Amino acid sequence: MSGSGQVEIVNRYESKYLIPPALMPEVRAHIAPFTVPDRFCRGDPPEYSITTLQLDTPSFAFHYAKELEQDDRFKLRVRTYGKIGSAPVFTEIKGKFQDIVVKARAMLPFEAWGEQLIFSTDLPGIFRSRRQENDFLEFRRLVWETGAQPAIVVRYVRESYVGTGRDYLRVTFDRKLEYCPRATWTSFGAGESWYPMDSSEDQAEDDSCIVLEVKTLQDVPVWVVDMVERLNLQRGGNCKYSTGMWKDALFSRMTPPREGAMDFLAWSV
């Protein structure tokens, strides 16, 4: 990504699996020797809630890039945690290039976030570091150049663990997946109707499943491979944004417009 100065980028590998709830005790037992609860979590199991505003182009190019499994693609999203208004806002550029996930992320105060911040040429002194400011400027540049606007909001509960070894490792379990089609720049779905998207129909499974993600900076640890083989876990994609988009299209009987999306996908970050 180029544009507004040097942007700090995190490259990592992500593997996703759909886990039947009945299998969760075995999975937790398998990861226990190698992980500890994420310090941001609360309770037993250790959890927190995530609410994400998904942005997209007028032709929904980000959505279709995922649907068509483009090798090189990215998306823009705005994320917050816990009760709306109680935590900072994080702007994120998340790209996928072959099997590598690339993410640039900036944090800002919740009250500072809004449409005015995106489309104003001024930039208040709200960032903790030059890196944070650069990450936001890159996010804003992409919003300007792609014409991205609020599409839908998704939220879910995440059970999260980190590895005890020296190498980066995160293991997360997402449940209670929901989406809100009435997206604005700042509401994050507050006061709106929410619709589930973790049913058997949404996930093409016999049962409603929990989404397991294993995130590393290099090869997956041997114990993870062993767990996958022992428990016969099936790897598969699960894009919360696209699931919400297609489910809303079924309800509204309106398919997201595809015209122009394919031309846009030729544009690269």
Helix-strand layout with pairing:
Elements: E1 10-19, H1 24-31, E2 35-37, E3 47-56, H2 61-67, E4 72-81, E5 89-97, E6 100-108, H3 115-119, H4 130-146, E7 149-163, E8 169-180, E9 195-196, H5 200-203, E10 210-216, H6 222-230, H7 240-252, H8 261-265
Antiparallel strand pairs: 1-6, 1-10, 2-7, 3-4, 3-7, 4-5, 5-6, 7-8, 8-9, 8-10
What key phrases describe this protein's structure?
alpha+beta, eight-stranded antiparallel beta barrel, single chain
- Annotation, overall tally of beta strands: 10
**Relative helix content:** 25-40%
Instruction: Tell me the radius of gyration.
Output: 19 Å
The run of helices and strands is EHEEHEEEHHEEEHEHHH
The largest beta-sheet arranges its strands as 1-6-5-4-3-7-8-10
Low-pLDDT residue intervals, each spanning 5 or more residues: 1-9
Number of helices: 8
Strand-residue fraction? 25-35%
Provide the structure class.
Answer: alpha+beta
> What's the mean pLDDT score?
86
| Gap from first CA to last CA | 5 Å
Categorize the overall geometry. globular
Largest sheet: 8 strands, antiparallel, barrel
